[in-house]
Specification:
- By secondary structure, this protein is α+β, with helices and mostly antiparallel strands.
- It folds into 2 domains: 173 residues, 60s Ribosomal Protein L30, Chain: A (2-Layer Sandwich), CATH 3.30.1330.100; 69 residues, Alpha-Beta Complex (CofE-like fold).
- It contains 6 helices and 12 strands.
- It has a 5-stranded mixed sheet. It has a 3-stranded antiparallel sheet with strand order 4-5-6.
- Helix 1 crosses helix 5.
Length: 254
């Protein structure tokens, strides 16, 4: 079966308080791409954050002494550095002007995912959603009412990767599908039992959608069709994007 990536153009600029599901449903209708059971709607984090009011004016931020000192040494905006500190649960690395931190339920990323590009207005920045999995569940339920189809929803953001150049889309929030495909105990083509293979399906879908979500293209939502996705697990701890974060006791790099 072919896998099809369908960009959804025509969405207006999202502002705090907007009904994001209504905007997406309208754009899908205007794009005339149709919606089918089994489709995955991929939405960029930034429009989710904007709709949820996760927007901060840098002019309202009073930097700490540490933020001022770090910013001065590395020619950074001390207000932005202060926000990174506030959004972080742990500093992973501060070196050569780079801030790699742990934030949210355990994502490790640069600058706590705070973004200045494509903001609502000059001087405003967007923060990551407080709970992207909850955001994905709310968006999925609302879209079901608008579209009459039960879609899976993946909320993505652009992260760098250790040991690799280039950034890719990662799944932050997931609803309506299994975030991973656990193949342990199954057999490969030669009949050998797989012992460690767990596929990050939600991340793979996020990356595929990212091909159509270029920074300057204005495409904030994409339908991915034809993927084999498993049903959402019944156990809460196995659901959503948070289930894709490797437990600390199994993480050799923390």
């Amino acid at each position: 079966m072919a896998i099809v990536i369908l960009p959804i153009p025509g969405m207006p600029s999202v502002r705090p308080g907007d009904d994001l599901s209504a905007l997406i449903a309208s754009a899908i209708s205007m794009a005339k791409v149709g919606v089918k059971p089994g489709d995955v709607l991929v939405v960029c984090q930034k429009v989710v954050s904007k709709a949820e009011g996760r927007v901060v004016a840098l002019g309202d931020v009073e930097p700490s002494a540490l933020a001022r000192s770090w910013a001065e040494r590395h020619d950074k905006d001390p207000r932005l550095i202060e926000l990174v500190f506030r959004e972080s649960t742990r500093i992973v690395r501060m070196d050569h002007g780079n801030l790699i931190v742990e934030t949210g339920p355990g994502w490790v990323c640069a600058n706590a995912g705070i973004d200045q590009s494509n903001a609502v207005a000059e001087g405003l920045v967007t923060l990551l959603p407080v709970d992207p999995d909850a955001s994905a569940r709310r968006l999925r339920a609302s879209l079901r009412g608008h579209l009459g189809v039960d879609l899976a929803v993946v909320i993505t953001d652009t992260f760098g990767r250790p040991w690799r150049e280039g950034q890719v889309e990662f799944a932050l929030g997931v609803a309506g599908m299994a975030p991973v495909d656990d193949l342990r105990g199954t057999q490969d083509m030669n009949g050998h039992e797989l012992g460690v293979t767990v596929i990050g399906v939600a991340d793979e879908i996020a990356c595929a959608a990212g091909l159509a979500m270029r920074k300057a293209a204005g495409i904030a939502a994409v339908l991915v069709r034809g993927c084999e996705i498993g049903p959402e697990p019944e156990e809460a701890g196995q659901r959503g994007g948070a289930a894709m974060i490797r437990p600390r006791e199994h993480d050799l790099f923390r």
